[in-house]
Amino acid sequence: MVIDFHAHVYPDKIASRAVDNIEEFYGLTMQGKGTVQELLESGRAGGVDRFIVFSAAAVPGQTGRINEYISSVCREHPECTGFGTLHPDVPDPGEEIERIVSLGLKGLKLHPDMQKFNIDDHRMMKIYSLLEGKLPVIFHTGDYRYSYSHPARLRAVLEKYPKLTAVAAHFGGWSVFDVALEHLLDPFCYFDISSSLPFLGKKRAVELIRIYGSRRFLFGSDYPMWDPGQCLREFLELDLTDSEKENILYKNALEILKEGEPL
């Protein structure tokens, strides 16, 4: 089994605009169109079986609509598992978390850089306390241009909420991978490999996976940034054992989703 734990999808009518915005934000050319149909077609062709899909609310008012959309995607496409979104300024985060659960969503995705809040912002503490032991959270983590998602901020949250199931995307620190290692080696969190292999290189990627341990990593494409099938091919070329690859491709994901054996 192969589970892509990091895929962004958008309604067809706004997907092109959303992809343009991501391209502008990162200064990178997207490989995908951002639609569910393309994700499923390219993923299946490339050997991916399941997808964790989500989007992030840029402003509080988008939160409900995005969560409803992601839920509808999952109802229509059973190979998709949805993660909701929250914004630190939603009027009642507890109510929205209950709604996320009622919609059948299995976690949350937060993008502090795009949503413009610090991971350890005081407004988020109530949210983390409500999520601790209840829903996993994928954090976009790291960017040399910003401080919002600095790995040290995530460490502070993990120390305060040790039962929070957190996934630090992009090896824990996109474009600041060694900074992530400095702050996130000791406190427990998961990592995904999305948007990292082209920048790290195969040798350093394997080194970091083994320093942290393969039971902490998840496969992810960061679609529409990259093509899921190509990401899978690049991952399979890493000099890892079959056991390490199985952990990353599906076992750790099933554990987070509470569909597998615990650590």
Report on this model:
The protein is α/β, with parallel strands linked by helices and 263 residues long. Helix content is 46%, strand content 11%. It has helices at residues 12-26, 36-46, 63-76, 93-102, 112-115, 122-131, 151-160, 177-184, 197-200, 202-212, 228-236, 242-256; strands at residues 3-8, 50-54, 80-82, 108-110, 137-139, 166-168, 190-192, 217-218. The strands form 2 sheets. The protein has a 5-stranded parallel β-sheet. Helix 7 (151-160) links the parallel strand 5 and strand 6 (166-168). The longest helix has 15 residues, at 12-26. The two termini are 19 Å apart.
Helix content percent band: 40-55%
CATH topology: TIM Barrel
Number of domains: 1
Fraction of residues in β-strands: 5-15%
CATH class assignment: Alpha Beta
CATH homologous superfamily heading: Metal-dependent hydrolases
SSE run: EHHEHEHEHHEHEHEHHEHH
Placed side by side, the strands forming the largest sheet appear as: 4-5-6-7-8
Rounded radius of gyration (Å): 17 Å
Number of helices: 12
Specify the structural class: alpha/beta
Give the termini separation: 19 Å
Major β-sheet profile: 5 strands, parallel
Number of strands: 8
Note the overall shape: globular
List keywords for this structure.
263 residues; alpha/beta; TIM Barrel; five-stranded parallel sheet; three-stranded parallel sheet; 12 helices
